[in-house]
Every structure is written in structure tokens, then in C-alpha cells.
Design goal:
Elements (H helix, E strand, L loop, with lengths): L1 H25 L4 E5 L8 E5 L3 E6 L4 E5 L8 H27 L9 H38 L10 E2 L1 H33 L9 H15 L1
Antiparallel strand pairs: 1-2, 1-5, 2-3, 3-4
Helix pairs in contact: 1-2, 1-4, 2-3, 3-4
Protein name: Claudin
Organism: Dicrurus megarhynchus
Keywords: Cell junction, Cell membrane, Membrane, Signal, Tight junction, Transmembrane, Transmembrane helix
């Protein structure tokens, strides 16, 4: 019962990780640059994401421009696009597989099959967490290095946006969920190896003595 509740807790974490991963991939505020003029009416916020660049004005207007050209983008943005999409796909596969392998569901067949499915789903979550953690770290490193560069003007410097933090938290949720799923399956298999099922063996000497006693009765 404890392992079933632990798997359910890991499944909830994985769901939050999947939704956060998808949101971080689609959000346009991976890096933010606030440009405040002399009047509050002229204040604008420029946001850059993996797929589009957006500008928000203090008057309430909001405009976005899609990044159509892939080859013109920096390498870290291209890598972030690829790895974040892979993270979303792997986490979705992990949700489907662990739904079959969890102990609280009636899918997946016998205990061994559910155990293997649960382990496979945990591996998918771990890989999804790694694929989500790498681009967020790389993207944050580029933002910090450009911010500390003295040759870059202040108007061109940015700060990490909400999408980066969402990506970090989602990757952590997926990693924790994957470790919980894999460790629960491993502990179950290890317990079966250490404590094998008991088998009742009858000593042959006792059977032979009983057989000899019966023969003497009939003589």
C-alpha cells in the first residue's frame, strides 16, 4: 500500500512536470528586457522565447513575431528547441506507460509486466528531466554571460524570464518522479532475490523409514 501511494505521488509530480514542460516550451518569456522611458506610457517589455519574440506595452498592446528562420538562430536556441520538444515527447510517453504499470490501476497484466512498465516509465521521466534541464541551464548561462559582458550595451541585456524558471521546476519534478518509479520497482525485485519463496522439502530418510516400517507390517 505504501509503494502504491508513493507511485501515485510520483505520478502527480510527473503530471505537473509534463504541463510545466509544455508551458515552458511554448512561453515567449525565456529572457526579458524592460525598457522604461521618461514617461510611463512609453514603458515596454521585450520578451524572447524559443519560437517567437513578443513586445508588451504599458498601454495594454501586445505584439508577437514568429521566428521563421531556423538557421539564423543562435546554436543554444536551436538546441533548446530540439531538447525541449524531446522532453515533452518523452514525458508524455512516461505518463502513458506508468498509467499501465502503476499498482493502483487494473491495466498491464500480471505483477511482473506492470513492474517492467513502471520501470520503463520512470526511465522516460528521467530522460525527459535531463532533456529539459540541459537547455534551461545553457540558456541561463548565455543570458548571464551577455549580462556581465561590458561590451554589450545596457539596452541589449536581458534577464531570465518565467519560462526558464518553469523549465527548471518541471525538470526537477520529472527527475524526482522518475527516480521514485525506478527505485520502487528495483526494491521490489531486490526483495524477491534476497528472500526467495520458501519451498517445503521432505527428507528422503524419513520417507525410506516409513516405507520400511510399512513393509515389515505386511510380512
Amino acid at each position: 500500500m505504501a509503494s502504491a501511494s508513493l507511485q501515485f505521488f510520483a505520478f502527480i509530480l510527473a503530471l505537473f512536470g509534463v504541463f510545466g514542460d509544455i508551458a515552458a516550451t511554448l512561453l515567449p518569456n525565456w529572457k526579458v528586457n524592460a525598457d522604461v522611458g521618461s514617461n510611463i506610457i512609453t514603458a515596454i517589455t521585450q520578451m524572447q522565447g524559443l519560437w517567437m519574440d513578443c513586445t508588451w506595452y504599458s498601454t495594454g498592446m501586445f505584439s508577437c513575431t514568429l521566428k521563421y528562420s531556423i538557421l539564423s538562430l543562435p546554436v543554444y536556441i536551436q538546441a533548446a528547441r530540439t531538447t525541449m520538444v524531446l522532453s515533452c515527447i518523452l514525458s508524455a510517453f512516461g505518463i502513458c506507460i506508468t498509467t499501465v504499470g502503476m499498482k493502483c490501476t487494473k491495466l498491464g497484466g500480471d505483477t511482473d509486466s506492470k513492474n517492467h512498465a513502471c520501470f520503463a516509465g520512470g526511465v522516460c521521466f528521467i530522460l525527459a528531466g535531463i532533456f529539459g534541464l540541459v537547455p534551461t541551464c545553457w540558456y541561463t548561462r548565455e543570458i548571464i554571460s551577455n549580462f556581465l559582458d561590458q561590451t554589450i550595451p545596457e539596452s541589449s541585456k536581458h534577464e531570465p524570464g518565467a519560462a526558464v524558471y518553469t523549465g527548471f521546476i518541471s525538470a526537477g519534478f520529472l527527475l524526482i518522479a522518475g527516480v521514485i518509479f525506478c527505485s520502487s520497482c528495483f526494491k521490489r525485485q531486490q526483495g524477491a532475490w534476497i528472500y526467495p519463496p520458501k519451498q517445503h522439502h521432505f527428507p528422503s530418510t524419513e520417507q525410506e523409514s516409513n516405507a520400511g516400517y510399512n513393509l515389515k507390517d505386511y510380512v
